[in-house]
Amino acid sequence: MENTITLKQHLIAEQRAGQAIDAHLIDLLDDVGSACKEIHDATSHGALYDVLGSADVENVQGEVQKKLDVMSNEMFIRRTEASGNLAGMASEEEDDVYSIPSEHPRGPYLMYFDPLDGSSNIDVNITVGSIFSIVKCPEGVTDPKLKDYLIPGTEQVCAGFTLYGPSTLMILTTGNGVVGFTLDPGTGEFKLTHENITIPDDTSEFAVNMSNQRFWEAPVQKYVQECMDGVTGERDKNFNMRWVASMVGEVFRILTRGGIFLYPFDTKDAAKPGKLRLMYEANPMSFIVEQAGGVSSTGRGRIMEVTPDAIHQRVPVILGSKNEVNRLISYHK
Ligand code: P6P
């Protein structure tokens, strides 16, 4: 049996090495791992379980929920609400913030999560994932209200996502680099398989939904056109394009071989400055990308420095290999 260590053993080792990881955070991440194992079980059985298709309910995002969206949200809440580590949580699938029921003890953390990102891919069997972000509940607040949740991404103590793909993989940062744990279906443990994940500074691969091209601002139009022009244009190399419509899949590919991901500001819908949500998609992914040596920006500022004014607010996202992201940022100046 190879000597791979589990998620909990890794966190305890980090704690002993002086990282700011307390028992509440270790226990909370253990619960998050349990929720992800349940979601893995549901997604990997697919049509064998009654989990595919639409729940015929619209969420606060105005999106029709998939059955697995609803189930994954329930799994995250049920697995984490009772352990006394959270003061409250916010979910993409919940209109309002979720207060821990009075029968449960409360703890020092707030968690924001997207229980099943990319769920439009579920019925076509393409990779989906869960994204989570954890911050300290404001000092002295035991019954957090909405205003207590509006904390910038720079205050995150932990961020992660679990990819339900050919293998189930949890990617995690607690502020000391980025690591990955592969779920061993035999033992049901997340085992450390990726240490010190770093994003290459350069890339020849961009990820964007090209059907939105006419709605982009000039800097993004310029950048993407240059990628398309390759050596026939301004750039000294040709580019490849990828778009799997699951942010978790794009981000893990970028963590592995580099790349730039764009869901930029567009004029498609004046009410939506971008598609992706700040608190439970852009902020956690930005923390991970920065910890892996990449850059994550709205195009005009660091995503993690955006001051939240709503729990479901959207934000433009440009993230990945630092030299490419910095080039596109320079086009915005
Ligand atoms: P589009 C999934 O719905 C998601 O929130 C991200 O995971 C993904 O990157 C994006 O939206 C896909 O958006 O417009 O290409 O379907």
What order do the SSEs take from the amino end to the carboxyl end, as H and E?
Answer: HHEEHEEEEHEEEEEHEHEHEEH
Total discrete domains: 2
Please tell me what the overall shape is. globular
Span of the ends, CA to CA: 54 Å
Question: What do these coordinates show?
Answer:
It contains 8 helices and 15 strands. It is an alpha+beta fold and 333 residues long. It has 2 domains: 7-194, Fructose-1,6-Bisphosphatase, subunit A, domain 1 (Fructose-1,6-Bisphosphatase, Chain A, domain 1, 2-Layer Sandwich); 205-332, D-Maltodextrin-Binding Protein, domain 2 (3-Layer(aba) Sandwich). The strands form 3 sheets. An 8-stranded mixed β-sheet has the order 4-3-5-6-7-8-9-10, with helices on both faces. The protein has a 5-stranded mixed β-sheet with strand order 12-11-13-15-14, sandwiched between helices. Strands 1-2 form a two-stranded antiparallel ribbon. β3 and β4 (98-99) form a beta hairpin. The chain is globular. The model has no long low-confidence stretch (mean pLDDT 96). Bound molecules: 6-O-phosphono-alpha-D-fructofuranose (P6P).
Briefly say what this structure is.
By secondary structure, the chain is an alpha+beta fold. It contains eight helices and 15 strands.
Task: Kindly list the characteristics that best describe this protein.
15 strands; eight-stranded mixed sheet; Fructose-1,6-Bisphosphatase, Chain A, domain 1; 2 domains; 333 residues; D-Maltodextrin-Binding Protein, domain 2; binds 6-O-phosphono-alpha-D-fructofuranose; single chain; globular
